[in-house]
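This section describes the prediction task in plain terms. A model, or a person checking by hand, is given the sequence of a single protein chain and must write out its three-dimensional structure as a string of tokens. No templates, partner chains or ligands are provided. The sample shown here is typical of the held-out split.
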Amino acid sequence: MSDLDPQTRHRAREMALQWLYQWEIGALDLDDVFEPGRQVELHAPDADRDALAEAFVRGTAREIGRIDQLITDHANNWRLERLPVIDRLVLRLAIHELMSHPETPPAVVIDEALELARAFSSDQAVPFVNGVLDAVRRTLQEE
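The expected answer:
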């Protein structure tokens, strides 16, 4: 799926964020999140976008323990459970992509996360998300 155009990848990240939100807030089983009828379409149906979004969500869920530890290690003076839900989910999604999708340059992953934070969170979220992701990026590069 690395051959998808940037716009499709961006829309996949938006969809993945919506699905992660439903999973977290609705306390749904992961498979239930993907049921037709539960999905809010921001754009016209797109099989490539949806497949990538589902891969992002499943990967994030699979690695959530490690992802949350990375957030905890780098979100200075913030407990994970005290972070706004959207900020936490944007971080989780981006960290999954940094860990599992080396074909996407880290700068692109971080820029996309900042766009999601701008669109779905507050102005204060953008520098926070940027700082945490940059620190996580450095940690992952050192590994």
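For orientation: The chain has one domain: 6-142.
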